[in-house]
Amino acid sequence: MDARTEETMPPRHDRTAGRAEQDARALARIAGGDAGALAELYERYAGPLFAFLYRLAGDRGTAEEILQDTLLAVWRSAPSYQGRSAVSTWLFGVARRQAHNRLRGAPPPLAAEPGDGAAPAPGPEDLAVGGDRVHRALARLPLAQREVVVLAVLGDLAHQEIAEVLDIPVGTVKSRLHHARVTLRGCLDERLA
């Protein structure tokens, strides 16, 4: 990026505030029955939501199904959005509830091995959510820790936003992140040894 481009771009907090306003307007339009507004939010958040759901479900197909469930839930519950959190935080909360509904009592699926011995080419989602070694390490985390890690790293949410999504205190978010990092470090070190 050259100096002229940087001069014409608004500061990051202005862009973030602008995005939050766009999201709130889109959600209000969804509440009014505007399917185009749902498509707009989908385009903006499908990647981060899919990455979050993929890490919770451990399976691409299941994550895609939960993402569709999430969109249906957003369509149905948009009128209940009260603006107490950012739309992005609210969306992650809806996705989390849909994932818990779908995954309740089900063990995370194991990664399938390719039939011919050749590894399939990674798709864009695979590249976005990390490699197989990271996926296996995350799968070993308890769900509560995995949620916090995925929201922090892939969702790029702040501690306060994670606390809102999970409905837990900020201190609990920090504690879970700390314990998850220790566990992940051990898992990854174990793999390298």
What integer value in Å does the Rg equal?
18 Å
Question: By helix and strand content, what is the structural category?
Answer: mainly alpha
CATH architecture of the largest domain: Orthogonal Bundle
Helix content: over 70%
Q: Please, what is the CATH homologous superfamily of the largest domain?
A: RNA polymerase sigma factor, region 2, helix turn helix motif
Pfam families: Sigma70_r2, Sigma70_r4_2
Protein name: RNA polymerase sigma factor
Keywords: DNA-binding, Sigma factor, Transcription, Transcription regulation
Family: Belongs to the sigma-70 factor family. ECF subfamily.
Protein described:
There is one protein chain. The chain has helices at residues 3-8, 12-31, 35-57, 60-77, 87-103, 124-129, 132-139, 143-153, 159-166, 170-192. It folds into 2 domains: 11-106, RNA polymerase sigma factor, region 2, helix turn helix motif (Rna Polymerase Sigma Factor, Chain: A); 130-193, Arc Repressor Mutant, subunit A (Orthogonal Bundle), CATH 1.10.10. The longest helix is centred in the N-terminal third of the chain and has 23 residues, at 35-57. With 193 residues, the chain is an all-alpha fold. This is RNA polymerase sigma factor. Residues 133-184 form the RNA polymerase sigma factor 70 region 4 type domain. Pfam families: Sigma70_r2, Sigma70_r4_2. Residues 112-126 have a biased composition (Low complexity). Residues 1-21, 104-126 are annotated as: Disordered.
